[in-house]
């Protein structure tokens, strides 16, 4: 009851602030301005330092305690860990809206219209000061039964010095931009631009789970050893991307992707196609032996395509002060209402070139046995279909409200030569669904500081719920007859950006 009251008070405070500022709007006075002690940017000779710190408080109805290696709360049950055991969790949390990070970017003119561009950044856990390392959280929980596990998550951020992006290249307005290094896939870039929740960990399926951004494999959301070319011509943009992959990168074979999009007035749309060979899919840590220093994984060839769109209505601004007998003062920007929609089709198949050595992202070695890494986990193709819609209303003075709905369908496929025979949640390869509904209120006090509060509800059924405690596929004596798992998560916090 006390936890619920704390969250309710946080929401009430945010709404009260909104109402107070709304009165200012209708009285035609400028809303109160908060002093911003930070400069617009920290740039020196074309090099800009940027960073994000995102922390707060969270409560879950069905969660998992944080561990020594904090990979963040498991906000929704669309996860490989499958270790929700009905525990109510109340905790300080991190990176609810944005992965806390720090980095440098540069855009330095070279002459004749050319510029040198680049970026180097890494995600970190502000509660421990450690670099984001989901793979280490799997090692920590290797072989530990469900009821004794702490938070762990599959991710491509595995303790690398630059676990986000590290690339450099050349840009020209006439000829486009070419960059080389570790970079977001086109799929990850696309959903980031068309997700109503902007890839929030706490409130977005697309942000919390890397499955969509990695075209089926979380570890492949960011491509190492990649070349990326993007060209813009007026309202049209197009791009091509290639990676030769490699061990310890999350994708052993090559990958390539294409994107094309454009905008007209308030409407914009994009189509993305991706092909990945030898992508790494980490298995739940329950599948590892106790004390193991290696990671169990499936290997797959992935094919994905997405159609993404949004439309923004911009409402007229208003005069800041002034009377009918006097000239109006400067015009303030108006409110905005944006609608989002997206669809992604993911097809996972057995790798054309089996993998029996090497490591996952960050250099964590994969388990090598007669059956692992598993090159036969997709005897017939696994198909995931993602659908999402949402809307965001931005008030000109800084408050925004966002609502979103996410849905996933999984087909019934054959894994390791054995098909789903009993149906329901009897096996991971049975057909299943996922649904999530989220709401978020976010108030930008200044350009560099915002406060937020939100709530999300997620539920998996049948095959996507299999192996959770209480379902027929669960291990270590925790099997039951349940066919669904759900949780409600609430988080409020603040984010500082420079």
Entry keywords:
Porin; mainly beta; 16-stranded antiparallel beta barrel; 9% helix; 498 residues; two-stranded antiparallel sheet; 4 helices; disordered N terminus
- Fraction of residues in helices? under 10%
Query: What is the CATH topology assignment?
Result: Porin
Distance between the termini: 37 Å
Instruction: From the alpha carbons, calculate the radius of gyration and give it in angstroms.
Output: 23 Å
Under the CATH scheme, which architecture would be assigned?
Beta Barrel
The helix/strand order is HEEEEEHEEHHEEEEEEEEEEEEEEE
Q: Say which CATH homologous superfamily is assigned.
A: Porin
Give start-end ranges of low-pLDDT stretches.
1-28, 319-327
Task: Give a verbal description of the structure.
The strands form 3 sheets. This protein has a 16-stranded antiparallel barrel with strand order 2-4-5-6-7-8-9-10-11-12-15-16-17-20-21-22. Strands 13-14 form a two-stranded antiparallel ribbon. Strands 18-19 form a two-stranded antiparallel ribbon. The protein is built from 4 helices and 22 strands. It has one domain: Porin. With 498 residues, it is mainly β.
SSE blueprint:
Layout (H helix, E strand, L loop, with lengths): L1 H25 L15 E3 L2 E17 L23 E8 L6 E11 L2 E10 L10 H7 L24 E8 L3 E9 L1 H9 L10 H4 L13 E12 L2 E8 L11 E10 L2 E16 L14 E18 L3 E2 L11 E2 L3 E14 L32 E13 L4 E12 L3 E2 L2 E2 L12 E13 L4 E14 L21 E14 L1
Antiparallel strand pairs: 1-2, 2-3, 2-4, 2-22, 4-5, 5-6, 6-7, 7-8, 8-9, 9-10, 10-11, 11-12, 12-15, 13-14, 15-16, 16-17, 17-20, 18-19, 20-21, 21-22
